Amino acid sequence: MITVRRFIRIKAFQALFQLSNNPQASTEEAIAFAIRYPMMDSEDDLNDLEALKIVFPGDTENEKSIKDSLDYLTKLVNGVVDNSELIDEKIESRLEDWSLKRIDLPNLLILRLATYELFFEEISPNIVMNEAIELTKSFNDEKASKFVNGVLQGILDKKEA
C-alpha cells in the first residue's frame, strides 16, 4: 500500500506537471486537477478536501489527516513554484556538462520537489532521497533514478559542507 506522504508527493508531481504544460493555470487549479485525476466529471462539484477524501490512501475517517495532507500538498506545490529560482540554481550547480533544459521534465520536477524538501522542510534527507528515487522509478526508469540520485546526493553534499 502506498504511504500518505508518497501519495501527496505524487499529487504534487502531477500538479507541477500540469503547471509546466499549462502556464496559464494557477497552482490552485493544478492542485485541484491532480487531486481529481482520474475521477469522473460527476465529482467536479466537490471541494478539494472532499475530493481528496475519495482518493486518499489513508484513513478516510480521519479528517485531520486528510486536511493536513491537503495542506502539505499545497505547501509543496506553492513552495516549489515560489522558490523555483533558488531550487533551479541548486540543481544546476550539481549538473556536469548539462543544463536544466536537457533534463526530462518528469526528472526535473522530481528534482525540484526533492530539492524543495531538502532546503525548506524538516524531513530526513534519507527519506527525501528515497522518495525521489521511488517517484522517479514510477514515472521513468532505473537509469533515470540513478541520475536523480546522483544530482540529489551532490546537492545534499554541498548543503552539508
List the helices and strands and how they pair.
Elements: H1 4-21, H2 27-36, H3 48-55, H4 63-82, H5 84-92, H6 105-120, H7 125-139, H8 142-160
Helix pairs in contact: 1-2, 1-4, 1-6, 2-3, 3-4, 4-6, 5-6, 6-7, 6-8, 7-8
Mean pLDDT value: 92
Helical fraction equals: over 70%
Distance between the termini: 36 Å
Q: How many H/I helical runs?
A: 8
| Counted beta strands | 0
- The amount of beta strand, in percent, is under 5%
SSE class: mainly alpha
Shape, per Cα inertia axes: globular
Catalogue the unreliable spans: none
- Domain module tally: 2
The SSE order reads HHHHHHHH
Radius of gyration from CA coordinates? 16 Å
User: What does the largest sheet look like?
Assistant: none
What does this structure look like?
The chain is mostly helical and about 160 residues long. It folds into 2 domains: about 1-80, no CATH class; about 85-160, NusB-like (N-utilizing Substance Protein B Homolog, Chain A), CATH 1.10.940.10. The chain contains 8 helices and no strands. It has helices at about 5-20, 25-35, 50-55, 65-80, 85-90, 105-120, 125-140, 140-160. Helix 2 packs parallel to helix 3 (about 50-55). The longest helix has 20 residues, at about 65-80. The radius of gyration is 16 Å and the shape is globular.
